[in-house]
Amino acid sequence: MDKENLDLASRPGQVFCYALKADTAGHETCWEPVPTYRPTPANPVSLDSGRLSKLKSNRLKADGVWEADAFHLPSAIMGPDRPELPCASMVVHQESFFIIHTDLSGPDKPKHQALAEAVLEAIEKSGRLPREIQVRGEELAKLLSPLGEGLGLKVSAKERLEAILDVKDSMEDFLGRRHRKEAPEKRLDHRAMEKISFNLSRHLEDQKFESPEEMSRFLHESQEKGELDKTPAPRSAGEAAQNLMYQAFEEPSVLRRIKLARRALQISPDCADAYNLLAEETAGSLVEARDLYLKAVEAGERGLGKEFFKEHAGHFWGIVESRPYMRARAELARCLWLLGDREAAFSHWREMLKLNPNDNQGMRHVLLARLGELGRFEEIREIVSRYKDDCSLEFLLMKALAAFAFKAPPAESAGTLREALEYNEYFPDYLLKRKRLPRRFADRLQLGGETEATYAVSEVMPAWEKVPGAFEWLAGELAKLDLPKVGRNEPCPCGSGKKYKKCCAP
């Protein structure tokens, strides 16, 4: 028997006996449930006309779609003379899964009547009028149609009410009436680790230490007591929403991640990470992603405030609260670039480097590669001069390309290329297309290893392809490394006629 057709919790008191039913073909027999009585037809919903008029005269804010359902709880309570299954009437906001109103009634009240009263209560308490109420089944939608007509909203039938089902699952888990499976492993997301830094900063902000040793002792004692693992009580709606996002980043279920992000926005519309996650999980196009990341940037600017930008510009990433905003801005710039708005993307990347010159996110590498695609090597050399100590492969390859494009002295350009070769020996085969780049890159890159080489080459390849002779120059320099060793005052093996020390010697 299909569970959907035999929902005892929705029909308490209805007794079934099983009768033998012969198959029409005469080959098999099966058992079918036969109710000992059939419920009487439901009466039309009773509505208070005065209550409806009062609601219609109020200035109600327009809202989206609500889901409404009435169902019997799995745990009985004692009635006047026998145990009863109470009926829970619930109204839930479809997009955010936020419970707008819930009420309990006895088994004697018709389901549609209890639900109509719950919807009216939800409208009165929230001060909002949904454009649509979704209920389970055509029969219930038909019974509640007078409510829709009276309030000027649509009542529609759905087979599944996802928001209601999520709430019911949570209730059943809480009441312990379902088999509890082992909790799935948390999702690995580096953003969730920021919670530790945030907790630590909150733990230290009111402390005054005379020396580093005193602070070290304090932290050691706090760690032994387990105080550093506790999340401090949020001091604002923004902190409460961000705590929810740390939970969302670790959540293995995509649907639950989305739900938590929407709930965070209900708590605080200035939660940038909530928009970041929605862009990742719900955007169906680059345009949709761009719009959500733009909302994230705007939310971050509102949440941080102008004074925060003035006070912390120059070391932005070091303040944990700034990171959702910086993530949003990086992704917004990426979307703008892919959509062809190049100058807007450059503007974001440059501004991020001003806010955070240490560039923990590696925006300079992205900026160098994109400038190279457009042949803007003068700007590349200016950035290279600011980050002389950068030894990452992307940086070194763009530094070498800029030297070659600007026709720097052979020794200088060759030196930049050798610097990259000393750091990573794997990139030439991929840059010269002797090996194919993988379709998917590794989740983690090994510095100096082949995984870093493939990723770096994929980023800088378009820039190298823009410079005539760049690949031939790379191949020539590699060939020189295989030549026999010569003295510095001997003729250079390259055939230039110059002494080795004046030509190709490092």
Low-confidence stretches: 1-16, 19-29
User: What letter string, H or E per element, gives the SSE order?
Assistant: EEHEEEEEHEHHEHHHHHHHHHHHHHHHHH
Q: Main beta sheet: strand number and arrangement?
A: 5 strands, mixed
* Rg estimate, integer Å: 33 Å
First-to-last CA distance: 82 Å
Count structural domains: 4
Q: By CATH's scheme, which homologous superfamily of the largest domain applies?
A: Ribonuclease H-like superfamily/Ribonuclease H
Q: Averaging pLDDT over every residue, what do you get?
A: 82
Structural class: alpha/beta
Provide the β-strand percentage band.
5-15%
**Strand order in the largest sheet:** 7-6-3-8-9
- Helix count from the secondary structure assignment: 21
- Number of beta strands: 9
CATH domain class name of the largest domain: Alpha Beta
In the CATH scheme, what's the topology name of the largest domain?
A: Nucleotidyltransferase, domain 5
**What is the molecular shape?**
elongated
CATH architecture of the largest domain: 2-Layer Sandwich
The amount of helix comes to 40-55%
